[in-house]
Structures are given as C-alpha cells and as structure tokens.
Amino acid sequence: MDKFLVDRIQITVDNYRLAKEELRNDGDIINHFASLVFSHYEKEILVERVKEIRKDIKLNTPRISPFRGDTLNILSLLIATVDKEKQEQLIQDMYDTMEILEEEGFLSGSYLALTAFTISKYAQLKDKRYIISKIKELFIILKEKYSNITSEDDYLLCTLWVINDIQADTVDDFIENIFNHISDSNIRSKNGIQGLANAIILNGSSGEMYRSMEFILQLQKRNIKIANQFLPLIGVLSNYNPRRNVDIVEGVIEYLCDEEGEYEYYIDKGFRTIIAIVIVSFCSMSSKRRYIDELLAQGILSFINSKNKGIFEEVLY
Asked: By three-state DSSP, how is residue 286 classified?
C-alpha cells in the first residue's frame, strides 16, 4: 500500500480516537464523520474551534431551529475547516440563505440547513435569489418525474447542479436514461438509485456512469456491503479503474480493522465501506473532491435518520 494512503488512514484513525474522546456526546457516527472531514485536509480536528462555533450558533438560534441537534454537530465540523477569518461571514450568510429558501417554500429541516451552508460556501458572492430559483426549478423537474421518491434529501444535489451550471434541460434530458440504466443493477433502494443517478449527472460523463456501476458490481461480488444513503458519493467520485479501486478499498478496510478494533466489531459494515472509499478518494486528484464533505454530511444525516427510524419502529412493534 502506498505510503500517502497509509498516512491518510492513520490521520483518520487518530482523528477518530480524538473525536471519541473530545466530542463523545456527538455519537459514534458523527465522530467518524469528524475524523474523515479533517483527514480530508490532513489536519487534526480543531476541537476548541468546533466547540466555539457550536456555542455561537446556539446563542443565535432558537432551540427548535433546524441548525440544532445533529445538524449543528455536523455543520460546525464543516465550518471549522473554512479559513477562520471567513467564518463569521459564512455563518451569517448561511442564516440569510436559509431564510430565502424557507420563503421559497422549501421544507425546513436538517437537509435544508445543509443546503443553505453549501450555497453560502460555494456561491457566497452570487445572487442567492437567482440561485435558489434555479434550485427550485430543478427540484420541480425531479418531483414531476419521480414524485414518490423525491424529497428534501434531493435539495443538496439540485444545489450542486446549479453551482456547476447544469441546466434544467440537461437534467430533463438525461435523468430518466441514467435512472433506467442504474435500475438494472442490484441496488434495492429506489432512493439509492435516484441519489446515484442525480450524482452521476454532476459528474457529466456516461463513461463515469458505467464505471460507477462496475465499481458497485465489484463490491457486490466480493460481498462488501455499502450503505445506500451514501450512493451519491459513488456517483461523483472518479473510478478510472473500478476493479483496482475495489482492491484498494478492500486493503483500506483491512488496515482500519487491524489498526482500531472499533472498525471491525462496532460499526455498520456498509458505513465502514464508505469510510474506506472516502479515504481512497482523498488521495485522488479529481476536482469533484471538493463536494465530498457536503455529500458525506448528507449521507450521515440520512444514515442517522434511518437508524433513529429503526429504533422508533422497534419500540412501536
């Protein structure tokens, strides 16, 4: 295994241990998220800065705000990776953007809060109302085509389309074709299929679609599980050699398990695969790397929601 990959794995493991100690109340899933976000930038988690951001947001938002709870814990980690001199402006811009999104009829909640952050991070100097009108246009197209599976967890990818100047007619022309191709795979979740299809449009290449499908197929052949909530990540990451990439991912999983028992015994196997895939992607040169943090954050929110729903259903039945 290449030294730069080993180094990145080690940073991730060290950051996880730090998060588990210093941010233990976040829970294990967000601790893993913290370890990945900061290893992306080859940094140790800025624990004190994260805590300051949380304190600031709590002071400036009501208790029932969508910026509280798990969303606060996730966003504070993302904000802490931004240059400190831009932090205050970014947070204020995020609040202002959220206000416009809610005015435009978007459903308030954790996914919308992440969307507001993403717009503020990547389009801070642009006309927010224009951008949001374009996001709404794209979301309506998705809703019309797939009304039973399109929901607020699609806000983020619609936002990334707009940020990347992907037009409504492009989405309208290609989404159904991509969706149908992916539907032939063994992915059981329709939401997972749609999330992957939406992300592939962001990658802008039919070749990437086939390579993404081959990558997923190779994972399935080796009985390596993958959590459906994170499929959009697969859609934006480049897989120039899917089989070779799966070999590397398998090696990273093995290394993680040898290095830290938590990765072997106390973690959802599909989530562990995503951790390995993300670590490998950090070592690539793809321009799409810059969206990994936000797509990973959305997957984390969905993953936590599905876990909570499962616990709630167990209590009911």
From this structure: coil
